[in-house]
């Protein structure tokens, strides 16, 4: 992934960014030949529409990039990135009436458009153009965001044959080593010795041992703990998924991939926080010792859980990890997981729904999502549904019957394992179902940039 901005001192050609309603005025300041050329090619300055302007020798003198209408811009993230990704080789710079926010979105979109998953093919096409960093933009921050997103995408896109709990551990340790973070790993039956029984119960049926990964970085500032669901493949267990339901289950470690990307951004930007990352890494497989429907598990916290669906395993491993996280004082605890299909039904694949009881955290996150180009949507910890996760025979039910409010009941389940009021939970999708500007089909990070942008307000940094 060729990530870099063009040398600011190098000669470059302009990319004129023009809105649809400003096209006529802009053409008034151009040559008659340029106007005729754009008219002949049907240029309307729609969002992401690109035209190259020729010079007298038949080369390319400049480019014109449509920014569309206000309505079109409101309905599309990274709309300019589609045109920027199509620029020919060379150095380019943006010109036009762009706000700092719009320029930053364009620059980030250009960086994200440079991503391609090349592990299994060599014919990937990378952008050949080099864009200069727009004035007023923080290049180091944009680069950190794009590099972290590449890590998240690579992890999610890698199939389970090449990314099981061991390989996720390897990537986790490599990330920690890059930034000098401390690590610890608890594997296999040692999970029982260390009182992490539900992580063990979910992962014990696989030939690839379950484990808990831990990373610590930073020596000063507020304490931030990130917990990511690391189900490297989910068969559904004995409540086995249909074949169509397994097709995307390599992405069931998307929560782990996303918190790793967020951790990378925090460390790369040297934020003044004390960071802790916990990833329970398992494969939900089927064998003679797999957990069964109606089994009752005793969690690290001491709460008992009736397993009414072995395919609701992510909340089980997160529960033990969250209980461990909650045993240590923290100024913020965040869990991220590809947890429920109900969240996708509720808000679709683009929005990252989140839960918190802390109004200040919610306000900070919602105000940061727009500038971070990372949309989120708050869903409620709805107290009247608490009874739905209480089966009677045990303290908690991991899969309430009825099918209603599945994302909310899963979030309520997780909240039972965290006493810290400064807790946020994200129920993400981690996948782009079709190519979109700056977001190719496949794995994608959600919520991480919004959290990063909100951290100064959340933690008074």
UniProtKB/TrEMBL annotation:
EC main group: hydrolase
Protein name from the UniProt record: Cytosol aminopeptidase
EC numbers for this chain: 3.4.11.1
Superkingdom, taxonomy of origin: Bacteria
GO biological process: proteolysis
CDD domains: Peptidase_M17
Domain Cytosol aminopeptidase: 309-316
Keyword Ribosomal protein tagged: no
Keywords: Aminopeptidase, Hydrolase, Manganese, Protease
Pfam families the record matches: Peptidase_M17, Peptidase_M17_N_1
Family designation: Belongs to the peptidase M17 family.
Single Gene Ontology MF annotation: manganese ion binding
GO cellular component, as recorded: cytoplasm
Keyword Manganese part of the UniProt annotation: yes
